[in-house]
């Protein structure tokens, strides 16, 4: 039994989530529910592996040993029934690094890259910062769920001459876990028009009952040959500060292009600590994650019930995956008014403008925090929005 209720003081540890509060000008008692890391202690097996690594007393240049791949392969075999080949594996410091590498590897300056909006901010940044052009296909909002308009998707691909599609699966911030049918429709359109797919599956381990994550590359050999899958233990096991992602590329042609761009960009290996933490997580983290998913599901339920009882005009999409809830707060003010209320009231959320869309009063809430903290944040939001 793991204690996810334990509150760990992260202030003064040089973490983005807490130690940027004062420099941002917010009240000192601000509760941060924005950046996507968790306020839970990592699995004890990971801590033990890191202690063992520290005890070596020498931290020289590491290599990626055989056991590293075997740990990753075991995880994907057990949890996704996906058999990996070691030759597919490349490592980067993070998935955002991989997105930027992919944009440079598979497109030329001025090419169009497709994203489904709203979507994680660095998707758009990876396109624009590398001199490419965003081809935007807005998701269709149904009040409690987002879907893909396939006609608009294909029209955008053809009209813009799209070369690359950045797929977020599960989708951040709207919480969708794409079904096999949805992924197949998108994948077939991409195949038909020569569009390479980059599947960011960093949140794939966070899926709730009634839903199932489908690895895009497993749908067909053709999809595997036309895609790059970006994975990492960082979200699942709260290891973002160790900088470690695993990029799976079955196609030798795509893999060579990606590796060439890695060499051109002088992409560093993960650290020795990242390698050891990843092995421990994937070899020994199943029970910890299974308990965590139950705890997170209860947190999501708490948020829904609290808003239904106290702030019923806030509408949330169903959180099928991730630990991030996406809500429409527009009934309680304009985007500018809401931002001031949350800022002054000591609640730090991600606003919709962070996700490649214009502000309209939507916010993303990170619920991966001890329940007592979450309850305090909810009461504060009630006071902020009803005063």
What is the chains' assembly state?
single chain
Q: Which consecutive residue ranges, at least 5 long each, have pLDDT under 50?
A: none
Largest sheet: 7 strands, mixed
According to CATH, what is the class of the largest domain? Answer: Alpha Beta
- How many β-strand runs? 15
CATH architecture of the largest domain: 3-Layer(aba) Sandwich
| Amount of helix | 40-55%
* Tally of structural domains: 2
The CATH topology of the largest domain is given as Aspartate Aminotransferase, domain 2
Please state the structural category. alpha/beta
The fourth-level CATH homologous superfamily of the largest domain is: Type I PLP-dependent aspartate aminotransferase-like (Major domain)
Order of helices and strands: HEHHEHEHEEEHEHEHEHEHHHEEHEEEH
Give the termini separation.
40 Å
Q: What is the number of helical segments per DSSP (H or I, 4+ residues)? A: 14
Shape: globular
Using the CA coordinates, give the radius of gyration: 21 Å
Chain-averaged pLDDT = 98
Work out the strand percent. Answer: 15-25%
State the strand order across the main sheet: 2-10-9-8-7-3-4
How would you characterize this protein structure?
The structure is a single chain. A 7-stranded mixed beta sheet has the order 2-10-9-8-7-3-4, sandwiched between helices. A 4-stranded antiparallel beta sheet has the order 11-12-15-14, with helices on one face. A two-stranded parallel ribbon has the order 1-13. With 387 residues, the protein is of the alpha/beta class. It is 42% helix and 15% strand. The protein is globular. The chain folds into 2 domains: 16-43 and 286-386, Aspartate Aminotransferase, domain 1, CATH 3.90.1150; 48-284, Aspartate Aminotransferase, domain 2, CATH 3.40.640.10. The protein has 14 helices and 15 strands. The chain has helices spanning 16-19, 44-54, 66-80, 95-106, 121-128, 150-160, 180-192, 221-225, 234-237, 252-264, 272-284, 286-310, 335-345, 371-386; strands spanning 31-32, 89-92, 112-117, 133-138, 140-141, 146-147, 162-168, 196-200, 227-231, 245-248, 315-316, 324-328, 347-348, 350-351, 362-366.
